Amino acid sequence: MFEVKISQMGLVIPTVPAPIAAYVPAVKVGEFVFTSGQLPMVDGKLLAQGIVGDLAGDIDVETAKKCAAQSGINALAAVKSVIGTLDNVVRIVKVTGFIACRSDFTNHSAIMNGASELFQEIFGDAGVHARSSVGMSALPLGAPTEVELVVQVRA
Amino acid sequence: MFEVKISQMGLVIPTVPAPIAAYVPAVKVGEFVFTSGQLPMVDGKLLAQGIVGDLAGDIDVETAKKCAAQSGINALAAVKSVIGTLDNVVRIVKVTGFIACRSDFTNHSAIMNGASELFQEIFGDAGVHARSSVGMSALPLGAPTEVELVVQVRA
Amino acid sequence: MFEVKISQMGLVIPTVPAPIAAYVPAVKVGEFVFTSGQLPMVDGKLLAQGIVGDLAGDIDVETAKKCAAQSGINALAAVKSVIGTLDNVVRIVKVTGFIACRSDFTNHSAIMNGASELFQEIFGDAGVHARSSVGMSALPLGAPTEVELVVQVRA
Fold first, then answer.
1. Across residues A55-81, what is the average pLDDT?
2. For an interface test with B, which of A132, A147, A151, A154 has the most B Cβ atoms less than 10 Å from its Cβ?
3. Domains of chain B and CATH, by start
4. ipTM of the predicted structure?
5. Is the pLDDT confidence value at C19 over 70?
6. Fewer CB near the terminus (10 Å): N or C of chain C?
7. C-alpha angle C44-C46-C52 in degrees, rounded to nearest 5
8. pTM score, two decimals?
9. Chain A contacts of C93, Cβ < 8 Å?
């Protein structure tokens, strides 16, 4: 059902990169999956690089919202890597959205809606989640967004 | 019991705003409740706005401590929205306190005690929690604090 | 088994400080342990103090990597405080690494490998975890790193 919806939306959930050292995309314990923080990578490259703000060269909210959505897609890829098919998702429980931003930035919510709206479109009621959106000094590789999930799955 | 204590303390746990889009105040899975990050809102307005630090216009530790307590009250409101009464709390398990601050700020602990002391006063032994306190570049709407909870509840 | 490995590695897991107010090193709920965020303290003092970056007086990646490992050791001490022996660890589920850094810093991953490699060496397959690494404006006491864990343990 969810996999069909993803296809109908024209989305492709990528395969996640092979584990690096002691660190994997997601871990399943009972009915919970905890993902690693996911950057807005597409084919091994960041969708955008930098910090959200108003200075020259800064990233704008629209671009960062697309990055949040891509981080969300990659987080689903991480979930899929440990449960086989996203049809086994019971509930997107918690979404934490880390946004690299200037100290006067206030519109984190608009950015993270990129991920939240995606989850709702794919999963319907099962995609309605708790969420924290917070502003960081910088993220790995200069990514503007990083998204991690706690997901309830069929045990 | 906890609801009586809250009344005796003269506290009011507000009702949380209606869900916005794909994002709700809290999600319950089995015996766990995960809340969204809660800002120090009172009647739809922030208790204070800005960053904790020593620059002109910055927020001081005492004001930020009150904001952390208010974020904590709102986090309890989020929990209550999915379990009906806070008497169903078994344990405050984990408190994460995000504090918007300058890069030379060091006193995060004093601020987050505003939330921790509140939970202990309300819940006694059931309010003794694990905690992370961390400093952010900026939080949504310019809030100085954001608090999220993991809570064990009657299943 | 894990305790023997820790001894063979020449590591000492310290005892954690006594609870301060409403806040403890870790909480166990069923098969999960949630730890508090742990700073790189050794005998009550930070291994290093400051922010990771390229400015004069900033901390370099190698030093911060050692701090991440020390934060990881202290996180294991927090786990041990609620399960008696680390032989009762079933799986290191999630590692969140908070790194105080400048806004142009990008190498969070190298720093957090200090903790990840430690967990893998001690716990083998049981130490392979999901991880988020993020950059903060500042951490408590001026610490460069703070590490928190979600761990699966024998119930």
1. 97
2. A132
3. 26-153 (3.30.1330.40)
4. 0.95
5. no
6. C
7. 165
8. 0.96
9. 27, 29, 34
